[in-house]
Amino acid sequence: MSTKILVVDDEPDLEQLIRQKFRRNIRDNEFIFLFARSGLDAVAKLEAEPDVDLVLTDINMPEMDGLTLLAKIDEMNAASLKSVVVSAYGDMENIRVAMNRGAFDFVTKPIDLTDLETTIHKALRESALIKDALRTRDTLIAIQRDLSVATEIQMSMLPRTFPTPDERAGIEIFATMLPAKEVGGDLYDFFRVADHKIAVVIGDVSGKGVPAALMMGISRTLLRGAGRAGLAPDECLATVNRILAEEILPGMFVTVFFGIIDTQTGHMDYCTAGHNPPVLIGNNGRVQSLNGASGLPMGVMDDGLYQRHHLQLNPKEIVLLYTDGVTEALDADDNEFGEERLEELLAGLHAATAEAVVGKTIESVQAFVGSAPQADDITCLAFRYLGSNSNE
Q1: Domain for residue 144, yes or no?
Q2: Does residue 14 contact residue 36 with C-beta atoms inside 8 Å?
């Protein structure tokens, strides 16, 4: 692309000198020179040619002098437009004023054309650097705008309306996800699979950012589809695993807990695919992990098998599902929040609601981390079995 240079001077001889000196640049279409006889003429040309890169202006001119022109250029807020002033060597006071008003450099009369050429190239390099910076800024703004939209889309994929005792007898559910970046790889979900039966899901895609978020959306859709098809937890994970193993990027995987709760009886069938074992909070405050054989994370091997486990919940007992962003959260000294600290916290929440359990867990993790940056997505889902006749 050609570089446009506006030369502002009331002496007509300067135009001829410029055209002669830079004839090769003009011939090769490297430079396009525009000429103005006064500051007023220059302002009109800048308005008509907004892509001018450099203004070379005299200071002493009729109608509008060079110093006033510099002020007008500053008002245009064109960060990449550079100005070089021309004045007599003895006019240093005006040159200083010009520099204070934003001139990039100056040359003195009589003009040394070699010095002028050097100054022009230096000013254009500076202009090019600023243009690159502005393009980078605009790109980053566009990316940030896209990420903001992606955040809204991802969060809209996750349930944000939770059943309360008045809305769905037998169970109370609440969940929260806090991505470490604009978008994250954690997921949670719950949905009805049959009369009186609800599936609860939590998962964690390896990695962070956009790739993990895309895989999170795919995984959630596949798990919902398999669950609503009436598959048992082990069959559901095996089915989704076979699909993911064919489609997932090398090195990526998904850990999942998948459970189906009978809201009339409190019986739950569940499976894990390499995920953190949930925590059961008993009515007496006793806290225990739901241990059991865990299969491989999904997407690692297409023939992965998953063992089904069973749990009988008593009324008012709570189960907390969480991702490793909870227990592996680090404070400023690289200490982990840890499972022991989590269990101590939960022991005092046996009479709390599902929402309170999630809220207190997130609050405690954030208090522990303090000013340290969040290193991983943090997700919790808690459900409390209320009993088939609960009307709380």
Answers
A1: no
A2: no
- Each residue's pLDDT tens digit, 33-48: 999 988 898 999 998 9
Report d(CA 325, CA 180) in Å as an integer.
Answer: 9
What are φ and ψ of residue 6, in 5° steps?
-100, 120
**For residue 320, what are the contacts with CB-CB under 8 A and spacing of at least 6?**
278, 279, 281, 346, 357, 358, 361, 380, 381, 382
3-state SS, 269-305, equals EEEEEECCCCEEECCCCCEEECCCCCECCECCCCCCC
Q: Which residues form the domain of 278?
A: 159-385
Residue 174 · residue 181 · CB < 8 Å: no
Global pTM reads: 0.65
Cβ atoms 269, 309 nearer than 8 A: yes
> How far is CA 16 from each of CA 23, 39, 94, rounded to the nearest angstrom?
10, 20, 26
Share of the chain above pLDDT 90, in %: 42
Domain boundary among 103, 136, 169: 136
Same domain, 213 and 336: yes
Same domain? For 217 and 341 the reply is yes
Q: What tokens were used for 120?
A: 């022009």
Domain assignment present for 390: no
